[in-house]
Design brief:
Number of helices: 19
Strand content: 5-15%
Number of strands: 15
Strand order of the largest sheet: 3-4-14-9-10-13
Shape: globular
Bound molecules: pyridoxal-5'-phosphate
Largest sheet: 6 strands, mixed
Length: 485
């Protein structure tokens, strides 16, 4: 099985090459051919532990990795990093609702599941491609992805990681998380400007230095594949909890931004898992809700800052992969992406829309409804959810209990958004974010994740600040240093 570009104008490559390169040369995303998605005998996987299940799925989707090799990478990636171990993504029942907890990793959000594994896949993939040089990962972050990438890549041999964050554009907690980052291969640098300045600066570095750099963003197929695993594991756990019988269809409600997480659910389904409907949950930035309901993707709309900031997105990059997987037509995808770039809008043909609607449902909710869902779950079951998960829960309710059981993907710990969660459950607190975390623990007795405890007292290890125009020189200088230890 080779990986092809969604836009059809680049040669097919091995799975290892797709991981090393990230993006295809024609600007498309590396994806498998829709009729080559491997089918798994999923009933035979029911009783496997997480690492064994993950290695079966990884080696099926990334044929350059044999099963025992994949297993040793998975074990190395998650060892000592998940507070829920040995389970990586436990399924929790709250009343008659089901929440898939994806937030037990080093930064308490779901991106950890993939970003802990990606460095190990990337290093091995580079060796397979005969690339013996050190890789430097560059990332611009609006907050959470940078920290998750730092934690995933820290102390992985043969790879260094440099994260740029906007000096005035991240929260106090996010900044504290990054500037206290330990590791012998990590650098964190503030950029004088906003997120767009940091992002454009990183893009300019990539075009000026075409060799030896790589990125960790969610268009890399190596980030998508690890996410397929937890759909299988959630299904099996729902069987064990007695919520479904083997073979029943299970629905999943997914708080969605870049469409990566929910696309992994689509792949799980194509591999044979009995998935009912994939429910795409959005906040007030409801471009995907409109798209799935009408077939028109239109990014020309106001951007809203919401209580669920990781879903504040108007261009969902991984949707391109779904369009290709469902149409098999790379010329169509290339033309739609061109329209999106030039006109800010496209419309898919009616037959493609019908296919999408047969597999996906879509709902959105505003901030008031987000709060109401946090409050309702807390009041009725004593289970505390974050603002992103609340959008997923709202969508699951709108989908309707008569359509069968739904697993809501719980993408972040409530402690990552303490102000919104406190106000939702009606506890006044006017301290800073650190004090709010303490207040949340005091009033709910839900334990705070250890990675967030004592954050304010940790030593600052990174103090560099650059102007956007100096980022290239900064990268060149630091890259030339033999070691950052
Ligand atoms: C990134 C993120 C999402 C969105 O996931 P996508 O794969 O981009 O759709 C949802 N919730 C949280 C907390 C996130 O960090």
């Amino acid at each position: 099985m080779l990986y092809v570009s969604t836009r059809g104008a680049s040669p097919a490559v091995s799975s290892a090459r797709a991981i090393v390169d990230g993006l295809a040369p024609d600007g498309g995303l590396y994806t498998m051919n829709p009729n080559e998605i491997p089918k798994l005998d999923w009933r035979a996987l029911l009783d496997l532990d997480y690492a064994s299940l993950a290695s079966k799925i990884l080696s099926a989707l990334l044929p350059d990795f044999k099963e025992d090799e994949a297993k040793s990478l998975v074990e190395a990636a998650y060892r000592g990093k998940f507070s829920s171990a040995p389970h990586i993504t436990p399924l929790k029942a709250a009343g008659d609702e089901l929440f898939l907890e994806l937030f037990h990793g080093p930064t308490s959000a779901f991106k950890d599941v993939a970003l802990c594994l990606l460095p190990h896949l990337m290093k091995r993939a580079a060796e397979k491609c005969g690339n013996a040089d050190d890789i430097l990962i560059l990332t611009a972050t609006s907050g959470d992805t940078g920290k998750a990438a730092l934690e995933g890549f820290r102390d992985v041999d043969g790879i260094r990681i440099m994260v740029f964050y906007p000096r005035d554009g991240v929260s106090a907690v996010q900044k504290a998380q990054m500037v206290t980052q330990a590791g012998k291969n990590v650098k964190v640098c503030a950029v004088e400007g906003n997120f767009d300045d940091a992002q454009s600066g990183v893009k300019a570095v990539f075009s000026a230095m075409p060799k030896g750099l790589s990125s960790a963003n969610s268009i890399n197929i190596g980030r998508l594949v690890p996410q397929v695993v937890y759909y299988f594991s959630a299904y099996f756990d729902a069987v064990r909890l007695g919520r479904i019988k083997v073979g029943d269809r299970l629905n999943f409600s997914v708080p969605t931004g870049n469409f990566g997480d929910i696309l992994a659910g689509y792949l799980a389904c194509e591999m044979g898992l009995p998935v009912g409907r994939l429910i795409c949950a959005s906040n007030a930035n409801n471009v995907l809700t409109d798209f799935i309901r009408t077939g028109v993707y239109d990014r020309r709309r106001p951007f809203h800052k919401t209580l669920s900031p990781s879903m504040d997105i108007l261009i969902s990059s991984n949707l391109e992969r779904l369009l290709y997987l469902m149409s098999g037509d790379s010329a169509l995808v290339a033309s739609l992406m061109k329209q999106l770039k030039e006109e800010g809008r496209y419309e898919v043909p009616a037959d493609l829309l019908q296919k999408i609607q047969s597999r996906f449902a879509a709902f959105c909710c505003d901030d008031a409804e987000t709060r109401a869902n946090i409050a309702a779950v807390w009041r009725e079951t004593g289970y505390l959810i974050d603002t992103h998960t609340a959008c997923g829960r709202s969508a699951a309710r709108a989908f309707g209990a008569e359509n069968g059981p739904v697993v809501v993907l719980s993408t972040a710990s409530p402690y990552k958004f303490p102000a919104a969660v406190l106000s939702a459950i009606g506890v006044p607190c006017d301290g800073d974010e650190f004090e709010m975390m303490d207040a949340l623990e005091a009033c709910t007795k839900v334990p705070m994740p250890e990675n967030l405890r004592g954050l304010r007292e940790r030593p600052v290890l990174h103090r560099d600040v650059v102007a956007p125009a100096d980022m290239l020189a900064y990268v060149k200088e630091k890259k030339a240093e033999p070691s950052w230890a």
